[in-house]
Amino acid sequence: MKPRKMSLSDRLDEFLDKNCLAPGDVPTRRDPTRPKMPGINAIKCNDCGQAEYLTRTHCRCGHYLLGQLEDEFLEWVEDLQRAHEEMAKTTEKKLKALRRAALVSMPFVVAPMLHFVLTESTITIYAMISIAIGMMILGVMAVSEAHICRPLRANSTFLETCTWESFLEFRSWPRNEGKNCELR
Ligand SMILES: [Zn+2]
């Protein structure tokens, strides 16, 4: 008889069987009465490890799924708060650097003003150009400041308005489905 071509996994299974290393409960076909994992309607029970429908308050093994989901929610909020604090710190650093850079505009504005005040002469075209340059720099800085602060503001609005529903919505995004089981 011609030896049957075996894939690597078949050979591994054979090896495990021969050496009595195969786990007792080899995962078989998915239970059709349970949801697919990961899925937007599924949650992995922390007790039995099986996928269960998100709408059920209790897993079939008796584990309190709603409680597990609430824990996930609290953890999610904590993560958001932590991320927000981090973002606030980086934003503050960026703003400090920006304000230091804004000092560059000062001589352009202050020097002609001082000259005008001290000499009581009329403002020359050069002074006006200088002030205009200074104002332009300040304008650019103001726009940059708004740009730097925008993500932080958006984040804090989200934090203030985030609810259980936003959590479920977040959880249902394809990237985050069943995030709980990947994280643990
Ligand atoms: Zn269970």
Structure commentary:
It is a single chain. This protein is mainly α. It has a domain at 73-183. It has 6 helices and 2 strands, in the order H-E-E-H-H-H-H-H. Strands 1-2 form a two-stranded antiparallel ribbon. Helix 3 (105-119) packs across helix 4 (125-161). The longest helix has 38 residues, at 65-102. It is elongated and about 100 Å long. The model is unreliable at 180-184 (pLDDT under 50). The site of zinc ion has 7 residues, from loops.
Q: What is the structure about, briefly put?
A:
62% of the residues lie in helices and 3% in strands. It is mostly helical. A two-stranded antiparallel ribbon has the order 1-2.
Q: Which helices and strands occur, and which strands form pairs?
A:
Elements: H1 8-18, E1 42-44, E2 51-53, H2 65-102, H3 105-119, H4 125-161, H5 164-172, H6 179-183
Antiparallel strand pairs: 1-2
Helix pairs in contact: 2-4, 3-4
Properties at a glance:
184 residues, mainly alpha, elongated, disordered C terminus, binds zinc ion
Describe the largest sheet.
Answer: 2 strands, antiparallel
- Helix and strand string, N-terminal first? HEEHHHHH
Mean pLDDT: 83
The ligands bound in this entry are: zinc ion
* Proportion of residues in helical segments: 55-70%
The number of distinct β-strands equals: 2
SS element count, helices: 6
Give the neighbour order of strands across the main sheet. 1-2
Stretches with pLDDT under 50, minimum 5 residues: 180-184
> What's the shape?
elongated
Radius of gyration: 31 Å
